[in-house]
Amino acid sequence: MLHPTPALKKQKEKWIVSREYDLFFFIGSTVFSLIFFFVYKIFTENKDPLIAHENEFYLVLMFYTLFDHPHIFQTFSRSHFDHSTKSRRKYFSLAFLFFLALVFFFYKLKLWGYLMNIMSLWGLWHIYKQNYGILAAYHSCSLTPKLLKYFEQKMLGLTYSSVVVYYILLNHFKIRLPQYTEILLLIFLGLIFSCWICKISKQTLKNQIPRILFISSICSFTVWSFLVCTDVSILVHVAIETIYHNIQYQGWVMHYQNQSKSKEYCFLWLLSSMLYGCIYATLVYASINAPIVQTLTKVYLAAVLYHYYIDGQVWKLSSYPEIKKIFCI
């Protein structure tokens, strides 16, 4: 496991944790999504349709095993097993039970499609908010000027919202947009990016490198995943868009655990989360239609909804000021 550097060095270098830690978890995490995409292409292109479909199933199952399930599991390490959230655990438990009842309600009324649409939109917002939070940490570390900070926040929001709306209109609502729409969108984003380059060129580059790398990584990957990587199934696209987010979240939680009183449980939580993912994948592989798998899937979906909701509670700076110190916010 990568360990954070001392606080003084962290401030000097303007990293949230350390150069190696940030590059792996927060900045370079998008590389893992790209690797997944290329692996998917290798195992599905120019293959018999049945073989390609089977390979896709195993790759998506691997995604849930190694990335998505573990990061959802980590939510409970914060909401139910961290000393600072002890007074609110009853409320958190009730919230999880509410989402569990909601999932069973949607299944009972055969409204599966509506549930998936809600989760997809909420998930996109959740990923954006996580990137916004990490960017806020970099702004604090590098003491970014107020005007530049505002511009970068809006740039991240405009980049994310514009390409996501374009993708949804084109691929979900099947709206036939003019062919030049994508070109105009890319020109628009290019102009914003050019303005950003002009603004940061007026600042001392040394203090900005971590933040510049983060923004460049997230914005370029977001444009690629929603404008270029569109010839894949919805499950594969979800995996590509989510893998880097999962790694970021693990890095965030593990750093918090290392710096708080939960330090001794950091590796144990990571190991447990991976074990949970492997057990679920084994059950699915053994019999995907078995009642226990269907029940576990419903519980998992409830946990995902709970994760989306509760993350806005357990990482709220006004409620837990110690987070500011740990993440240099």
Account of the 3D structure:
- This protein is mainly α and 329 residues long.
- It has one domain (7-327).
- 78% of the residues lie in helices and 0% in strands.
- The protein has helices at 7-13, 19-27, 30-44, 49-79, 89-108, 112-141, 146-171, 180-200, 209-228, 234-259, 266-286, 291-314, 322-327.
- α4 (49-79) runs antiparallel to α11, α5 (89-108) crosses α12 (291-314) and α7 (146-171) runs parallel beside α9 (209-228).
- It is globular.
What's a concise summary of this model?
The chain is mainly alpha-helical and 329 residues long.
Please describe the structure with a list of short key phrases separated by commas or semicolons.
329 residues, mainly alpha, 13 helices, disordered N terminus
Question: Helix segment count?
Answer: 13
- Annotation, overall tally of beta strands: 0
Cα-atom radius of gyration: 20 Å
**Largest sheet properties:** none
**CA-based shape:** globular
Q: What's the helix and strand layout?
A:
Elements: H1 7-13, H2 19-27, H3 30-44, H4 49-79, H5 89-108, H6 112-141, H7 146-171, H8 180-200, H9 209-228, H10 234-259, H11 266-286, H12 291-314, H13 322-327
